[in-house]
């Protein structure tokens, strides 16, 4: 009985491999055929702009704090209107592990992941992307989102004029 | 030109042609195996060097010749350097007695399509197949590495467990043909190949040569998941290449021997003799690759069990039954 089972098992296995020869290989011959990844694929990181064309990044350092491999660094600065921005912003893609934690941490949706996975350079130093390399002229995944219309007290508009804000209460009228 | 010189020249030509054909076939066997195995695993296999990767063997040879030929500091130097040649030479030598086509008429002379028509061809093959394992044993021993030694010990243990049943499976063939010469064995199969008369012998011999070729279901001496690379762990460059090529030459030679002993050699309808021979050898080589792509490695004790407790008694019973039937038929 065991012998018969062994023989049958062996023949069945041989049948499986024989059938596999005539199936289409699952391999994608890469440089000739390029796979199109899903839109939410996590590869090269970009810095996006708000609907008005300004930089979204407010240099809050949350992305570099979230980064498990410490590949993001920046220097915060303040514009004449009191709006914060990054004086310089640097991502070292030779360190980046494309985990997406920076994009999750970003309160202004400035830092986003794109499906461009062909990040290969002869010189590792070319993988250190500066702010001008990272900035794109687009809103990325959520084009209409504008951080300063929701928050950023007194920077882009006066107090209480944000889209989800109520006018400031008169403290004296609240007295009992 | 007198007949002696003509004979010598013809032998030399045959030697060169057979050697070149065998080495080319062995090199392309690597390519065929890699492509086929890849397709069995839904991959593409080597397809970068040349058209369909057909220049891959050439690229491999260039790579291996360019690699450094290292010898471990503790190694037994001369044995280490010579051992790879043993495996490859024994595999090549075996082909000397294999008839690969019908006799040819050249310059008014009958030229047999075999390098040397020994009258003890089968014994020659059995002797060389046992000697071939010396390459494994000496290479593993001389490396003075524990993995290589383990591989060598396994190679020897495997040899004694399959060799007896292999030889015994050949005895019915010898009884049927009444000769030790491979040419006579082929001639005796002009009508019906021996696989019809001795199917059990064929099955035992097939399993035994799978073990003899030291390939996947029986690749204990190499066992890359346990012993790094087994007996050739310490080898690099073309010395490793010699072991590697030896394995593929061995595969072709064993396929050729199975063809000659059981499948009727170059006999077959419609096609010329050499084409039939190559077709049968190719089919057996495909079988080897197919089995490698399918079956996992047997455990150490399972090989011993299979050899001593299954194949050997089966071969003995098969021998007795065949002898009895032959006696009855011929009486």
In words, what does this structure look like?
The complex is a heterodimer of chains A (176) and B (331). Chain A is of the alpha+beta class and 176 residues long. Chain A has a domain at 45-148: Alpha-Beta Plaits (2-Layer Sandwich), CATH 3.30.70. Chain A has helices at residues 2-21, 62-66, 101-105, 131-134, 147-150; strands spanning 45-47, 72-78, 84-92, 111-113, 128-129. In chain A, the strands form two sheets. Chain A has a three-stranded antiparallel beta sheet with strand order 2-3-5. Chain A has a two-stranded antiparallel sheet with strand order 1-4. Chain A is elongated and about 95 Å long. Chain A starts with a helix and ends in a 26-residue tail after the last helix. Chain B has one domain. Chain B has a two-stranded antiparallel sheet. In chain B, a hairpin with a 2-residue loop joins strand 1 and strand 2. In chain B, helix 5 packs parallel to helix 11. The longest helix of chain B has 38 residues, at 3-40. Chain A binds chain B through residues 10, 13-14, 16-18, 20-21, 23-27, 29, and chain B through 36, 38-44, 47, 290-291, 293-295.
| Number of separate structural domains of chain B | 1
Percent strand of chain B equals: under 5%
Shape of chain A: elongated
> What's the CATH C level of one domain in chain A?
Alpha Beta
Number of separate helices of chain B: 11
Structural class of chain A: alpha+beta
- Using DSSP, what is the number of strands of chain B? 2
How far apart the termini of chain B lie comes to 50 Å
CATH fold call of one domain in chain A: Alpha-Beta Plaits
Q: Mean pLDDT of chain A, rounded to whole units?
A: 86
Strand content of chain A: 5-15%
Work out the radius of gyration of chain B: 20 Å
Sheet with most strands of chain A:
3 strands, antiparallel
Q: List the quaternary state of the chains.
A: heterodimer
Distinct helical segment count of chain A: 5
Q: Order of strands across the biggest sheet of chain B?
A: 1-2
């Amino acid at each position: 009985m065991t012998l018969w089972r062994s023989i049958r098992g062996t023949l069945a296995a041989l049948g499986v491999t024989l059938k596999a020869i005539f199936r289409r290989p699952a391999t994608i011959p890469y440089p000739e055929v390029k796979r199109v990844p899903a839109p939410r694929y996590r590869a090269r990181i970009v810095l996006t702009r708000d609907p008005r064309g300004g930089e979204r990044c407010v240099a809050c350092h949350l992305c570099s704090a979230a980064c498990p491999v410490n590949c993001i660094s920046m220097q915060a600065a303040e514009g004449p209107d009191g709006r914060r921005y990054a004086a310089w912003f640097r991502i070292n893609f030779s360190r980046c592990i494309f985990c997406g934690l920076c994009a999750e941490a970003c309160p202004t949706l400035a830092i986003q992941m794109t499906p461009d996975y062909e990040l290969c350079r002869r010189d590792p130093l070319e993988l250190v992307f500066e702010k001008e390399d990272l900035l794109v002229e687009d809103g990325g995944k959520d084009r209409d989102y504008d951080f300063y219309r929701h928050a950023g007290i007194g920077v882009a508009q006066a107090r209480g004029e944000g889209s989800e804000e109520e006018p400031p209460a008169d403290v004296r009228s609240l007295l009992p | 030109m007198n007949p002696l010189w003509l004979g010598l020249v013809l032998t030399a030509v045959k030697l060169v042609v057979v050697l070149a054909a065998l080495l080319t076939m062995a090199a392309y066997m690597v390519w065929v195996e890699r492509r086929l195995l890849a397709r069995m695993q839904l991959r593409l296999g080597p397809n970068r060097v040349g058209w369909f990767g057909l220049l891959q063997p050439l690229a491999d040879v260039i790579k291996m010749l360019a690699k450094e030929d290292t010898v471990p500091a503790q190694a037994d130097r001369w044995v280490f350097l010579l051992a790879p040649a043993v495996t490859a030479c024994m595999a090549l030598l075996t082909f000397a007695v294999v008839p690969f086509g019908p006799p040819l008429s050249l310059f008014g002379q009958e030229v047999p399509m075999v390098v040397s028509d020994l009258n003890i061809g089968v014994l020659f093959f059995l002797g060389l197949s046992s000697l071939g394992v010396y390459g494994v044993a000496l290479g593993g021993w001389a490396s003075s590495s524990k993995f290589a030694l383990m591989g060598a010990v396994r190679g020897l243990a495997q040899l004694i467990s399959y060799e007896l049943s292999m030889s015994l499976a050949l005895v019915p063939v010898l009884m049927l043909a009444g000769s030790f010469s491979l040419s006579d064995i082929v001639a005796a199969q002009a009508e019906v190949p021996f696989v019809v008369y001795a199917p059990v012998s064929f099955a035992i011999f097939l399993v035994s040569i799978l073990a003899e070729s030291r390939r996947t279901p029986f690749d204990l001496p190499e066992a890359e998941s346990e012993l790094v690379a087994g007996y050739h762990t310490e080898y690099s460059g073309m010395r490793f290449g010699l072991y590697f090529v030896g394995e593929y030459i061995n595969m072709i030679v064993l396929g050729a021997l199975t063809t000659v002993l059981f499948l009727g050699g170059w006999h077959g309808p419609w096609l010329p003799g050499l084409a039939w021979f190559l077709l049968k050898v190719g089919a057996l080589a495909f079988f080897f690759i197919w089995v490698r792509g399918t079956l996992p490695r047997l455990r150490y004790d399972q090989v011993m069990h299979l050899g001593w407790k299954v194949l050997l008694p089966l071969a003995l019973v098969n021998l007795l039954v065949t002898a009895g039937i032959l006696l009855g038929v011929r009486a």
